[in-house]
Amino acid sequence: MPLRIDRRPDSTAIRVAAPLLAVLLTVGTGFLLFMALGLNPADTLYQFLIAPLLTFYSLTELGVKAAPLALIACGLAVGFRANVWNIGAEGQLTIGAIAAGGVALAFWNEIGWWILPLMLLASILGGMAWASIPAFLKTRFGVNEILTSLMLTYIALLILQMLVFGPWKDPDGFNFPQTRLFSDAALLPVLQEGSRLHPGAIVAVLVALVAWFVMARTVIGFQIGIVGDAPRAARYAGFDARRTTWLAFLVGGGAAGLAGAFEVAGPIGQLVPTLTPGYGFTAIIVAFLGRLNPLGIVAAALLMALTYIGGENAQIVSGLPQAATGVFQGMLLFYLLAADGLLRLRIRRVPATNGKAVTP
Amino acid sequence: MELAVPIIVAIISAATPLLLAASGELVVERAGVLNLGIEGMMLMGAMAGFAVTLLTGSHIAGLAAAAAAGMAMALVFAFLTLTLSANQVASGLALTIFGIGLSALIGSAYVGQPVAALPKLDVAGLSDLPVIGPLLFRHDFLIYFSIAMVPVLWWYLNRTRAGLRLRAVGESAEAAHALGHPVIAIRYGACLFGGLMAGLGGAFLSLSYTPMWAESMTAGRGWIALALVVFAAWRPWRLLVGAYLFGGVGIFQLHAQGAWGLPSELFSMLPYVATILVLTVISAGAARSRTFGAPAALGRPFRPSG
Amino acid sequence: MSSSKIIVPEVSTRGISRRSLLIGAGAAALVLASGSMAFAQDPLKIGFVYVGPIGDHGYSYSHDQARQAVEKEFGDRVKVTFVENVKEGPDSERVIRQLASEGNELIFATSFGFMQPTIRVARQFPKAKFEHATGYMKAPNVGIYNGRFHEGRAVHGTVAGHMSKSGVIGYVASFPIPEVIMGINAFTLAAQKVNPDIKVKVIWLNTWYDPGKEADAAKALIDGGADVIVQHVDSPAAMQVAESRGAYAFGQASDMSRFAPNAHLSAIVYDWGPYYIERVNKVLDGTWEPEDKWWGLKEGLIQISPYNDKVPEDVQQAADAVKNGIIDGSLHPFTGPIKDQKGVERVPAGETISDADLLKIDWLVEGVQS
Predict the structure, then answer these.
(1) For residues A30 and A35, what is the distance between their CA atoms, to the nearest angstrom?
(2) Rounded to a whole number, what is the distance in Å from the CA of A288 to chain B's nearest CA?
(3) What integer pLDDT is reported at residue C22 of this predicted model?
(4) Could you tell me the domains of chain A?
(5) What is the ipTM score, two decimals?
(6) Is residue B293 part of a domain?
(7) CA distance C336 to C348
């Protein structure tokens, strides 16, 4: 009798059960993986998934790590909803950081409340400017944005290098590739003494709330969704695909640029050749893991941050090889992405008509 | 001419891993699936190809292992996205994270060991000819294979029933389904082919380009391959041009470095700048005649109903 | 030497104030005094932070080899932890801090980019001891160390000067930081001493690690007339190219002769083991102080791997003479007259460059093309 894979309709039960199933599968497979590596599996899992949640400091670090991811992902989600494929957030972040750093260095000798706001503004404009290159090429010449936004990322990273190896090099820095440490006026305050949690985390949450409101409750949000889901219908409705493309890139680039400013004015405190461990790329996963919903994105960013910090923990405390943290992280993502599909899967026997299988 | 020969040979080497991986991704995308896990599949191919060649001493076994490793990775992706309808973009990126980790974990046993490079063609008489010999008759199997696949793919996509069916699936899965085409099965096949080619692209790195295994040795080539598919507007011949353009500018900038006293970073930017410029010129021209857009169903999940 | 490096300013830019730093230091002294008595039997916890994967077979690999040497040397008396592939961005501070809060009393941060994070964490953990590689900022509980990589380059330059027939040497370089520039200059000066017409062509890759690009650069250099390849990047790819193209080559970080049995003339081997062992000993016997160590051939941190048989006896002797001269102090790799690329005299005849100037060198010597 032929088998047929089928799926159940979506339901609340599935939505609740899916993340639980994902966690269960991750823990189960992780247990086997860590055991195979000759480690204490329970302890390693504890270090990976639980320990980072137990100290105040590591909770603040969760915020430090999740804030840029959430901020960038919220910006990108706007584009992804409209089917605009901006995968160059890392480059937009870099240019934003350069713009903010440029302001910080230009007013290095000044003290004033206006320096930080100016840096943040510069970073948003910088990110937008970099994102407007693919937007322009796409709307004017029809150049596919996947290629341009990705290639521009490599270019942005090289521009950063050129600056920190060249004109912006710290004059007292022994010719190492770094700028001066920003002055106090150009550094973000910390929210909690002794931690690195900075106001960027609050901004990320606010941005997510605003983005959620805009996407769910306003005409613009509706328009973006329509352009993405049904471009032809959108055209009939008079929605302009070009304008949506521009909007998507400017929002995505601005958010990424702002995240760049928060990094350099926060945890890093200067411009260096490596600013992020690939936040701009990780944010793409975060955006989809959060189902392009700003509130889901905040949760997804915290989860991704947990797996990174947990991975460091497991290396330090349990001696887990770094490569294995990548395997574990990949698995966790697989399960999370697949869980509701898995629950909705239903294998049915198809009754054969008159004893003969129906050929499709 | 004599002087240009080694430079051209270097360009061929630089372009081949990109061409291999991108050829696979081109078919995947033509079937309407976007797999961003090329880097992960390439790394698994590079590691498996190297390890098996080292253990068995057989390059054929090594290449088979690389292809199998790439396909195994692709199968994970296909199961997630096609059977379980998981999001393609996120699944692809997760595949990259997973592949970087897994290849490093298994491959740690093989770091720092040399292996014999893939043998080069040696045709009595022909391979020793000046200029023509090194240009045409002194390469390894994967180089000939990568170039041969270009017309084969063109023929498959444009002249065979199966190819037309695959394209139909990529343009509209619903319509293809309505016509009775097995959408999911075709997409599975495309994904597996993508994994096979990415695996071989990785094996070219670890067995020919730089015959060794080191963690993350693809160094971002999977991403470039992704961009090249876009550059090619999903057409095989243009892919060949794109891969050789990118590889060529990359080699050229090494020779040009130091000229005019410009910072080396500007030269390092050239391949990226050149690709953007050339694509812009092509796209601007194409916009006037007819557009070569992405497969309409690219990245959209298909859920067969009923 | 120590004058060349700056001590961290007392007033921190952010985080802990000076007042709490002083209190912390006082409390730490108390804890330390009682701690060493109460827990004399507990193993010393040591942490290592690597910028790359230990599987890079280059820089991080060499540090990890040394970590294993520490474990072998001290056995149960130490408990060693390492974290690899730590990116030089916001993550490194958390990793270093985490190591400190897990009770690691001695932490080696092995990359330049970990400098500011190490200093910041050190302020918060005054009782732990930190060692930062290749940087320049010291603190009451942060010592710094580095290798005189350029000394090995001078030895290899001597060999290359003899072995190169075309008079053109290709140098595959990563980034124009002082460490790399020092190496290129020392190599060039030594080669020119043998053959004044030697030219050294440099290609900057702007990455530490991309085997494919490293190979491409070596090919381009050979196509440009180089018959000897030197590298200051992490993988052995350039060695393999030299092998297949019939050129000579010098390896870096570890002996790479397996990858190029004919081409590989010798390699500079980084052996951080003796340094780490010395530092651990000092912590164990309570004499650790923040120091500023720049070890080279003399101390064995830099070693010259065995020469290939292709290097004639007299050339080996000439190279050994340079090596021994550096070791006994009779020869300084940077002895004037030295001119820069523009032909401007930078070091007058008979004089040498001070360590302080060497550590921030940003100019290339005459005869280098880049």
Answers:
(1) 8
(2) 6
(3) 33
(4) 1-37+324-360 (no CATH), 65-320 (1.10.3470)
(5) 0.92
(6) no
(7) 5
